[in-house]
């Protein structure tokens, strides 16, 4: 593929809800945690939805588990899925044809809620025991 360069596609402007957080592999976990806790504790939001794809999935699970251990009585619902992403490659030398490659990328959506979610859902988790929840302190999340 050294004779090709990937064509950068413009990002689709899909609206993001006020309580939705899209986790990326480059973002700092501390910033995501602080923002989510602000939504749940200070802004009066009853739920926060985390979305991630690919390599950011493990970071998302870690962030959610840390938040559950700082805020009591959070219900969780997790759903997983996948999507196909098509990349277009333009040749850097004459005589070559453009290429298209398709990647199968995993996705996760985790909802944390102060109110009870659908308990019959496959990805439902009830709140963790209150003795495992510790108040917020000076914690380095990195």
What does this structure look like?
This protein has 142 residues and is of the alpha+beta class. 18% of the residues lie in helices and 33% in strands. It has two helices and six strands. The chain has helices spanning 29-41, 57-68, and strands at 4-6, 20-22, 47-53, 75-91, 99-113, 124-125. Strands 1, 2, 3, 4, 5 and 6 form a six-stranded mixed sheet that branches. Helix 1 links the parallel strand 2 (20-22) and strand 3 (47-53). Helix 1 packs across helix 2. The longest helix is centred in the first third of the chain and has 13 residues, at 29-41. The radius of gyration is 19 Å and the shape is elongated. The two termini are 35 Å apart. The model has no long low-confidence stretch (mean pLDDT 90).
Write a brief caption for the model.
By secondary structure, this protein is an alpha+beta fold. It has helices spanning 29-41, 57-68, and strands at 4-6, 20-22, 47-53, 75-91, 99-113, 124-125.
């Amino acid at each position: 593929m050294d004779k090709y360069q990937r064509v950068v596609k413009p990002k689709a402007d899909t609206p993001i809800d006020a309580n939705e957080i899209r986790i990326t592999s480059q973002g700092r976990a501390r910033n995501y945690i602080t923002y989510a806790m602000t939504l749940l504790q200070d802004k009066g939001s009853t739920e926060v939805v985390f979305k991630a794809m690919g390599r950011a999935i493990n970071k998302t699970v870690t962030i959610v588990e840390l938040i559950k251990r700082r805020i009591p009585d959070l219900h969780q619902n997790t759903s997983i899925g996948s999507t196909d992403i098509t990349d277009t490659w333009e040749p850097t030398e004459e005589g070559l044809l453009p290429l298209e490659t398709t990647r199968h990328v995993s996705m996760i959506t985790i909802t944390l809620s102060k109110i009870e979610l659908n308990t019959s859902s496959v990805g439902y988790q009830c709140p963790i025991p209150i003795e495992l929840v510790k108040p917020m302190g000076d914690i380095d999340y990195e």
